[in-house]
Amino acid sequence: MSDVMDFFIEKFRKNLELKPEPSRYSSPRPYRNAMVSFRGCSIYDLEERKDILVNEAGLNPFLFRADKIPGCDLLSDSGTTTMTTEQWAAMLLGDEAYGSNEGYFMLKEQIKDTFGNSWGNGGGSAPGVNEDTFIFHQGRAAENAFFSMLSRELRKKGAVEHRPLSTELMPELKERIQSRADSIAGEGDAPYYIIPSNSHFDTTEGNVEDKGMVPLNLPCREHLENKEDFDFRGNMDLEELESLLVNEGGRVPLVYLTITNNTGGGQPVSMRNIKLVRELTAKHGVPFFFDACRFAENAWFIKNKEEGYSSVSIPDIVHEMFDNVDGFHISFKKDGLVNIGGAILFRSGTPFDKLYPDFREELTDYQIMVEGHPTYGGLAGRDLKGIVVGLRTVTRRDYLDARIGQVNRFGAKLVESGIPIVRPVGGHAVYIDVDKFFDGASHDVEFMGISLTALMLIAGHRFCELGTYAFGKFAGGQEIPPDPRVNNVRAAVPRLAYEDQDLFSAAEAMKILYDDRDRIPGVDVKYGRELKLRHFKSRFTFK
Ligand code: F0G
After folding, report:
1. Cβ-Cβ contacts under 8 Å for 318 (sequence gap 6 or more)
2. Are residues 407 and 380 in the same domain?
3. Is the C-beta atom of 203 inside 6 A of ligand 1?
4. Is the CB of 267 inside a 6 Å radius of any atom of ligand 1?
5. Residue 85 predicted with pLDDT over 60
6. C-alpha–C-alpha distance, residues 291 and 199, integer Å
């Protein structure tokens, strides 16, 4: 008898160890539905959605009412997480004291646990402001505070001499910086400071620009060349970074890596790239920060794709990643597994601390003015407890296997239908390559990504254009496409919210559009073409 059981144990185990394939499920999800919410609308309400799309939303997905979306709402993976019962239970025990609530101390402990012992140690009774954890209500509020303080600190260092960029810079890099600086300057002085990143997210970019600095994207060559077999397309181009630091290091207050690289397709950054950026920045005495929104997903890719990490645990990989940076900001609405929250964190004794000794003191004052006391920031006490449990859950290997596996299966389903996507698939989203979708015709007909997202809404699913409309600009009477060109429609998968059936039905709707793509017209912009952050506000009609 026991032989039979052992025989099948062996067979079951072998089956689990087989490499997962899109249409094959050998293991169940590591969680089950503890509560579900029924939709108030039906997938058959196609005419109603057409009416809302045209008459209320002006073809803009941001303006389309969510309660009329019966399918997948893939507008963002941010703040759209289904929280666990453990999180809800923790939130019921929220301590709503006005200062120094219980959740704050639990969060500091969890931060040490998640990111490593050199984080989350500040505060306490030492004289002066030695707080190292600054809580905000979401990522962009943290970014705004961070760049407001940085520009204040830089101004304190004295007026800068507005000289031309060094001729020693790599020529193509110099040209890119110059044209960006010109577009920011308008009639005024050219901006002096440059903030490089593998790719800034649009809010980070907006905040950098708003403070008169140049946000500079240095995506790696493999990404620009669309190398589909390269696992770490989120990497930074080190040659360009070195050229910048060697020739214009004095203009670079800090260097960023966005992990994973959302703008570049949700692509991960390798540990090797992180360490090489650290080496370069250390050599030039320039601080190094993460935009750490999707840190756990990035760690999963290091474990599964980078040589030497397969037997290292995800929590240990996260510690190793964060050992390299002076600080980071994060939106907990992604890998914090919560619906609201963000933070800026610093490590003590780093080059950043030495360069800007008053930074934390001033940041504390600013935080109190715009969000709240450092011990709660812009959040309720209960929100802090939700984050604590979220951070504990997000580095579980079984959670990440299921999460990234699902996004990957969704991508594979689209590929199976012939739909061109950015490959390899990243951690949180699938990016449909609009230029390839229309066989290059989208270069002539502007904003085909907007057409795609509009028609998908009629099918009952919400995608997001992140391409020539979102990242392009209308200036001097003409349209300026993003450089380097990006033209994607993104399907960002909310965490723990959908099953494969939902995502596969969205893929099938996209295939219907793909099969008749020659019939899809472009759009005219009826409102907002010249506005900043225009994709949130504009209205369109089909041509
Ligand atoms: N950084 C990255 C890399 C992001 O992806 C986001 C938000 C932010 C910063 C800002 O955080 O939303 O909390 O203010 N990304 C969302 C998205 C909105 O849909 O990709 P936030």
Report:
1. 114, 115, 116, 295, 296, 299, 395
2. no
3. yes
4. no
5. yes
6. 10
Question: In CATH, what number is assigned to the domain containing residue 388?
Answer: 3.40.640.10
Which of 82-86, 186-190, 204-208, 457-461 bottoms out in mean pLDDT, i.e. has the lowest? 186-190
Ligand 1 atom nearest residue 76's Cα: 19
Q: Which of 140, 259, 337, 339 to mutate to test the pocket of ligand 1 (most atoms within 8 A of CB)?
A: 140
Neighbours of 211 (CB within 10 A): 19
pTM above 0.70, yes or no: yes
CA terminus-to-terminus distance, the chain: 72
Rounded CA-CA distance 313/379 in Å is 31
Q: How many angstroms separate the alpha carbon of residue 78 from the centre of ligand 1?
A: 7
| Residues 230 and 212 occupy one common structural domain | yes
Q: Is residue 413 part of a domain?
A: yes
- Give the residue, out of 143, 334, 430, with the most ligand 1 atoms within 8 A of its beta carbon, to mutate for a pocket test: 334
- Asked whether residue 304 falls in the same domain as residue 443, the answer is no
CA of 11 to the centre of ligand 1 (A): 44
Gap between the Cα atoms of 133 and 379, Å rounded: 13
Residues 315 and 189 in one domain: yes
Cα 382 to Cα 185, 339, 389, 491, distances in angstroms = 44, 12, 11, 30
Shortest-distance Cα residue to atom 2 of ligand 1? 201
Length of the chain in residues, anyone? 543
Q: Is residue 274 part of a domain?
A: yes
Write down the pLDDT at residue 127: 46
Residues 379 and 402 in one domain: no
Q: Which helix (H) or strand (E) holds 290?
A: strand 288-291
Reduce the DSSP state of residue 377 to 3 states and report it.
coil
The pLDDT > 90 percentage for the chain reads 81
pLDDT at position 135 is 96
If you take atom 1 of ligand 1, which residue's CA is the nearest one?
201
Which domain range does residue 212 map to? 90-393
- Residue 439's pLDDT band, with cuts at 50, 70 and 90, is confident
Are 23 and 108 in a shared domain?
no
pLDDT digits (tens, 9 = 90+) for 105-149: 999 999 999 999 999 987 665 545 578 999 999 999 999 999 999
Region 412-435 average pLDDT: 95
Q: Is residue 82 part of a domain?
A: no
Q: Are residues 363 and 404 in the same domain?
A: no
Percent of the chain whose pLDDT exceeds 70: 96
Q: Which of 138, 147, 293 to mutate to test the pocket of ligand 1 (most atoms within 8 A of CB)?
A: 293
**Could you report the per-residue pLDDT of 147-172, keeping only the tens digit for each?**
999 999 999 888 777 788 999 999 99
Last residue of a domain, one of 365, 393, 421: 393
Atom of ligand 1 nearest to the CA of 332: 13
Ligand 1 within 6 A of CB of 263: no
Among the atoms of ligand 1, which is closest to the Cα of residue 464? 19
Q: Does ligand 1 lie within 6 Å of residue 291's CB atom? A: yes
Is there a domain that residue 85 lies in? no
Which pLDDT score, from 0 to 100, does residue 124 have?
61
* Ligand 1 neighbour 201 (Cβ under 6 A): yes
The Å distance, Cα 331 to ligand 1 centre, comes to 7
Split into its structural domains, the chain has a count of 2
One domain, residues 277 and 296: yes
Given 340, 366, 393, which residue is the final one in a domain?
393
